[in-house]
């Protein structure tokens, strides 16, 4: 846990990895992890064609980026949308015809693709979609709580020590070496030497808990119950409706009732 956090702490640039195509892809099949490391083969799914507007966007994006080098992707999309609104009908119709032609080909290819799938492959695809949906929901939830101002969890004593000792402008290999070195240094520190960092961490945790309580009270007041920890949500117990009396219970009650003398 500490090592993974340290990797992010020391990395000053994003590291990119290269995806290597497997032999299965070259032969019309792709491999995917399934069942705890085992691999399963799936036919390569045909790519759905993009619609007329996306084709237009893709065709003019390079020119827009060249003319507006500082524009964000969202701003580029807005510029493209404005040009699409004034695009003549002939060019729009041409793009639409191209899309429908590719769409017809894709429908045939996709039908063939689906017919090749076994029950196991269909289940694998279904499970993959479920996992992607869950990951998307988690990303959206993290973004939402961030936008709502959720307090950040504080660093522990060891990470505070690393933060103070962190050199700047390290290469990837230097980062790895530094992580290992700092971990060894921390393990050799006495409790007295660690105490300032542990105290800072304890103070940060206390403040974090206070901030979280205030933030959750605010979220409850704003009816954002889904971002509040369950233990802090007070939900009244459901009302227990009394069961209607049965004939036997009525008879028993009548028998138990004292008769007038």
TrEMBL record:
It comes from the Eukaryota. Transmembrane segments: none annotated. SMART domains: HMG. Pfam families: HMG_box. Residues 240-261 have a biased composition (Low complexity). Residues 119-151, 235-261 are annotated as: Disordered. Residues 46-114, 151-216 bind DNA. Coiled coil: none annotated. GO terms for cellular component: nucleus. The keyword Chloroplast does not apply. GO terms for biological process: regulation of transcription by RNA polymerase II. Keywords: DNA-binding, Nucleus. This is Transcription factor A, mitochondrial.
């Amino acid at each position: 846990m500490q090592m993974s956090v340290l990797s992010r702490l020391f990395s000053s640039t994003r590291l990119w990895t290269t995806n290597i195509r497997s032999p299965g892809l070259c032969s019309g099949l792709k491999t995917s992890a399934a069942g705890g490391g085992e691999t399963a083969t799936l036919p390569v799914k045909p790519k759905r064609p993009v619609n007329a507007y996306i084709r237009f966007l893709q065709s003019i994006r390079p020119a827009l980026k060249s003319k507006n080098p500082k524009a964000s992707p969202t701003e580029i999309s807005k510029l493209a949308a404005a040009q699409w609104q004034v695009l003549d009908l002939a060019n729009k119709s041409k793009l639409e015809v191209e899309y429908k032609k590719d769409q017809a080909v894709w429908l045939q290819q996709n039908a063939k693709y689906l017919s090749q799938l076994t029950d196991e492959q269909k289940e694998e695809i279904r499970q993959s979609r479920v996992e992607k949906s869950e990951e998307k929901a988690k990303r959206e939830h993290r973004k939402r709580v961030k936008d709502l101002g959720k307090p950040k969890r504080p660093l522990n004593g060891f990470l505070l020590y690393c933060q103070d000792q962190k050199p700047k402008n390290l290469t990837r290999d230097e980062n790895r070496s530094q992580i290992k070195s700092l971990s060894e240094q921390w393990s050799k520190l006495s409790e007295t030497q660690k105490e300032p960092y542990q105290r800072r961490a304890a103070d940060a945790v206390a403040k974090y808990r206070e901030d979280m309580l205030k933030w959750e009270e605010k979220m409850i007041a704003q009816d954002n119950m889904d971002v509040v920890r369950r233990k802090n949500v007070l939900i009244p117990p459901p009302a227990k409706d009394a069961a209607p009396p049965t004939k036997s219970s009525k008879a028993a009650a009548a028998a138990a009732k004292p008769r007038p003398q």
